[in-house]
Write a structure and sequence with these properties.
The protein has about 450 residues and is an alpha+beta fold. The protein has two domains: about 45-145, Rieske [2Fe-2S] iron-sulphur domain (Rieske Iron-sulfur Protein, 3-layer Sandwich); about 165-455, Alpha-Beta Complex (Naphthalene 1,2-dioxygenase Alpha Subunit, Chain A, domain 1). It contains 14 helices and 24 strands. A hairpin with a 3-residue loop joins β17 and β18. α2 (about 30-40) packs across α12 and α5 (about 205-215) crosses α12 (about 425-440).
Length: about 450
Amino acid sequence: MATKTKSKYLNGLVNTIDGKISREIFVNEDIYQQEQEQVFTRSWLFVGHESQVSKPGDYFVSCMGEESVILCRDREGQIHVFLNSCRHRGMKVCRYDEGNTPVFTCPYHGWSYANDGKLVGVPFFKDAYHEKLDKSKWGLVEVAQLHNYKGTIWATWDTSAPSFLEYLGDFRLYLDLSLDSWDGREGGTEVIGGVQKWLIPCNWKFPAENFSGDSYHNISHRSVDMVGIGPSGAGRRDTQERVNSRRLQVCFPERGHQTGIYVLAGDAPTPSSYQDSPEISEYFRRCEAQRRESKGEWGRVTGSPGEIFPNTALHPRQPRTIAVWHPRGAHQTEVWRWYLVDADAPAEVKDFLRQYYIRYSGPGGLTEQDDMENWNYAHSASRGTIARRHDYSYAQGMGYEQTDFEIDGLKIPGVVMDLTEAKSSEQNLRNFYKRWAEFMDADNWDELATWRNNHG
């Protein structure tokens, strides 16, 4: 691992004063290896959804950075996340994507583990080990902390990390836009179908940056807007709702999370643009009216793409997905995307959303194909000797951020950029890289949890 130099990154390779970022942080192998230790072992990472392990014995093999992990439910119904590696010689103890089993058995030397992580089987335990191996000390490695938030499962390897809710801070309100039911009830979502997985030849920070709120790249999606793949057949999304709304960027500098939102005017009705059938249109019209009633002023807020630091992307409404950018070397990312629906939605609504989701997102989705082409070419064009001498520009909107932002009596938590007049800003992107640089420079969570010092 490369030797860490204090403040090498913040206002060094990541220059937040001038809005410049070195290409080295995307293409340098030593930096990539360092961020596996500095970022991915200390952050809270998204692992999966409880609906994927609904019964005792269910498991789903996921990832935390480069680590393969097993999300499973034991015989008592408790959810766990374990490192998918045998304690004897490191072989994966589970080589299937998902399933149900009472025991994980290593195919190399046969050590076996119950789904609560305990070592329960050791070949030749009596003859070769003379019954002296302490099985209680050789169970599967479990994450340091785990949190189930409205069905989503999050974990960290760091015992000193703050709790998940403290890690989120006030960004919790924006995560709720993805996880609450369409009519405003708390939680109630499930994963529909499987998880899409694919590889893209770029550094993981390219897609993470994009979903942090790149409001400048709509030129990339003009052809998709013309085709009209959205629910209303106009544009990519429910465009009428966007036209009637104020567009904002929101970020949390102390935590590194950011998102975009749309806020309807106080007296504007929430439109329904789901015209696939009268029944489906009426379902969403009714849900949106109930949401406005149950959430009050906050019911006027609609989510847009956002990012929970470091690598979990949210697409709260159209389409409602969670994506994780798994690092696979400095020059490759494995993308996993989950698609969410209300668990109690009618079957025809779920099928309507499923069809919309797959034509929008994923490797077959028209919008994401545009994005992947940008990331791939940008990364490959930045690897050369000459290219690496020249920084990227992130100067849009510097100095125009607002705190304590309020619109029609609705207070918006976070640092806000109003894009109504500005049209575009790189505030959220700077916020993402600032937090990345802080993780790369910091020795521990005492240095990272600055809000504790600022707010008591």
